[in-house]
Write a structure and sequence with these properties.
18 helices; mainly alpha; 383 residues
């Protein structure tokens, strides 16, 4: 539940706080460019894999140090005013993002070493659900606390969250790697991710194609609902319910993967996603259909949460213990980057050709992606 706190606070809460303080939108947009420090986290994964103190636990040592650093950095924001001291706040926020990069990457590596292969599905369901909750803590939770208690209490409370895992880490024993925690060249593990045909196909084809339908369907949802006259309150309510259900769906997907296997779940998750996107077509055509639309939005969220758990489970299964942070972080980081790119592209495409054609294409992609994912995972993983 600490995975995305630094990232979500910066991207989803900090900008709103600045706008509330009178900072121009153009300035906030430039501030968001600082987020590239976190977006490129997979580039630093080989550093986490290579350097570490075996005495304290390779990844455990990284986590303890970065959690202490995040606590100190967030506390350092307390005496600063987010608007009046914006340059100083941005310097400290950059430290928060860099520390979050190393922290979240080390957590990926520790998960690979700690979790038994038989538990990958259930464990990733718990991880994705917990990560979703951490986004709520860092975004809407932080904004709610800020609106009631102000800046100082908010940043100190976020820092205090890291005290909980610190207590757990003091009693955790990290399994050692099968091989020595070093690679011949620092970033060779990144090249290996694309040099091997099996991993390259997983990262560059299976993940993007299987997730594309939900990414395309999510981007224009608010715009489509506004077009048919939905109020902001109704839109916010439906989307909040969808996000809450998505947390449960991620955990449930982990249980299903552990019991049914990867290929069967790919077919189930893909079918749910395809039918949910199909149910959005009346909305895209301008038909209000509030009940159908609400179920469709929730269905898309369920499919997305389930698919992210599926991605994480297989990425963990394919990760090598000696380069655990890199192997697990690269596909998951690129999946997150693809969501951002496709969401932006989806809005541009909808503006050019209309919502109906965009959703129709998403349905077609859902069928193709489900077929590819089911066949690929049966031949490459479920054997």
């Amino acid at each position: 539940m600490t995975t995305n706190i630094g990232y979500s606070f910066f991207f989803l809460a900090f900008g709103t706080i600045l706008l509330d303080g009178g900072v121009p939108l153009e300035t906030v947009a430039l501030v968001n460019l600082l987020g590239v420090l976190y977006a490129a986290r997979f580039l630093l994964a080989p550093v986490v894999d290579r350097y570490g103190a075996a005495r304290f636990g390779h990844y455990r040592g990284w986590l303890v140090c970065t959690q202490l650093g995040l606590l100190v950095a967030l506390a350092g924001l307390a005496p600063l005013d987010p608007v009046q001291d914006l340059p100083a706040v941005l310097m400290v926020m950059a430290v928060v993002l860099v520390l979050s990069t190393f922290h979240d990457t080390a957590l990926n590596g520790l998960a690979v070493r700690l979790i038994a292969p038989a538990d990958h599905g259930l464990a990733n369901g718990i991880q994705i659900a917990g990560a979703s909750l951490s986004v709520l803590i860092g975004s809407s939770g932080a904004l709610l606390l800020y609106s009631r208690s102000g800046w100082i209490v908010t940043v100190l409370a976020l820092g205090a969250v890291f005290l909980v895992p610190l207590g757990l880490l003091t009693r955790l024993r990290e399994p050692s790697a099968v091989q020595r925690d070093r690679v011949p060249v620092l970033w060779s593990a990144l090249a290996d991710s694309l040099r091997q045909p099996r991993r390259a196909m997983w990262i560059l084809l299976v993940i993007p194609l299987f997730g594309l339908a939900e990414w395309l369907a999510t981007a224009p949802q608010s715009a489509m609902m506004l077009d048919v006259g939905w109020s902001m309150d109704r839109i916010a309510t439906v989307q909040s319910v969808a996000i809450s259900v998505q947390v449960v769906a991620a955990f449930t997907a982990g249980v299903m993967i552990s019991r049914w296997g990867r290929s069967a779940c790919a077919l189930v998750f893909g079918t749910i996603g395809g039918l949910s996107v199909l149910a959005l077509l009346p909305l895209a055509a301008g038909v209000t259909a509030p009940v159908l639309t609400s179920f469709a939005v929730v269905g898309v969220a369920i499919a997305y949460g389930a698919k992210v758990t599926w991605f994480a489970t297989i990425s963990m299964q394919m990760a090598r213990r000696e380069t655990a942070a890199t192997d697990y972080s690269v596909p998951m980081a690129l999946e997150g980057a693809a969501v951002t790119v496709i969401s932006s592209a989806g809005l541009a495409i909808a503006a050019a050709v209309g919502f109906t054609w965009l959703l129709a294409a998403a349905v077609l992609v859902a069928v193709l992606g489900t077929g590819l994912a089911t066949v690929w995972v049966r031949g490459q993983v479920d054997r």
